[in-house]
Fold SufE family protein.
Amino acid sequence: MPAKLAAIVEEFASAPRDVVLEMMLEYADAVKPLPASFDGHAGMEQVPECQTPFFLKAVVTPQDQVELYFDCPPEAPTTRAFAGILSEGLDGATTAEVLSVPSDLYQRMGLAAAISPLRVRGGTAILNRLQRQVREA
């Protein structure tokens, strides 16, 4: 797992349960605006497991770095937080680093105790689709 993401996981795992949700919501603001080339979600994949409209795109550069693009409405802060965590922890990582992220990432962070299983399932689906796109690139 990339060092940036490992640090985020450790930060959440060691945090008191009553502040985990508050910490998570801080990551909702880490989602960068989409470039115009993704207007209308062109070339992006929807994640239907999410309760809210969520779109993503992973681009692998010739230097083997992964660029991440997410679109999720601001009215869905928990789902945006998943994207923000992945963006902060994985943007610019190598393909091998992205593919090394364990599928139980959110459980390791302790989020399963703080948010509903349905939301954890949506976050896991985001990670799985992102990794599939990286494998296919």
In short: The helical segments are 3-13, 17-26, 77-90, 95-99, 105-108, 117-136. The CA atoms of residues 65 and 94 lie 5 Å apart. The longest helix spans residues 117-136. The radius of gyration is 14 Å.
